[in-house]
Amino acid sequence: MIKKKITLFVIVVLISFFFISSTSVSAFSLDDIVKGVKNLFDGDKKEFTIEPSITLAPDGDIDKNGEIDAGDIVRFSYQLTNTTDKEYSFATLKTNIDRQRLNFIHNIIGTASLEDNGKTITIPNFRIGANQIATVTFDAKINYYSSEDPTITTEADFIDNNNQSAAKSLKKEIKAKRINEDKIPGMIKQQINKGDNQ
């Protein structure tokens, strides 16, 4: 991408010098070149984007080992950037998180509520104005697993009030380390064993 931009920049400069040398200065100024190059690099893109992230929450490393393990608390963050002229209201941000991997959802910032149907987490009644940036974050504890390393993923989808997708994010994921069964707290261990027997 950088090589393409450098190549385009060189082409713009060469064409600009050609026009300057073949036309009068009043017909083609240096300001025109600067504006053209700025537009080439900045552009006036009108788009709606979602940038998700999953990180260890502050103080989320429960056993203080510097790694993400089952039982640790992770932070989900979604930055929504709307550089269009359209305002969205009564929209829904679908996180597409596998709810079965998480519990104890808390520390919600940037939205009035979350919907948790036991399968995934959605953020209803979302509003973002034209040329605005909004951020939503929340924390959740990774469920204990005795037989596998849990993978936590999110692939957000912003649905407008006409039930149309306005933007989708790339998939983000983290892999947590499973906890050996002997280190899982007793009460939780009983619940896991009970679930395995069903």
What does this structure look like?
- The relative contact order is 0.17.
- The protein has about 200 residues and is α+β, with helices and mostly antiparallel strands.
- The C terminus is likely disordered.
- The longest helix is centred in the N-terminal third of the chain and has 21 residues.
- The chain has three helices and eleven strands; from the N terminus they run ααβββββββββββα.
- The chain folds into two domains: about 40 residues; about 150 residues, Immunoglobulin-like, CATH 2.60.40.10.
Question: What is this structure's SSE topology?
Answer:
Elements: H1 2-22, H2 30-41, E1 48-56, E2 73-82, E3 88-94, E4 102-109, E5 115-116, E6 121-128, E7 132-142, E8 151-154, E9 157-159, E10 165-168, E11 172-175, H3 186-197
Antiparallel strand pairs: 1-2, 2-7, 3-6, 3-9, 4-7, 5-6, 8-11, 9-10
Mean pLDDT: 77
Helical residue percent band? 10-25%
Q: In CATH, what is the homologous superfamily of the largest domain?
A: Immunoglobulins
Number of helices: 3
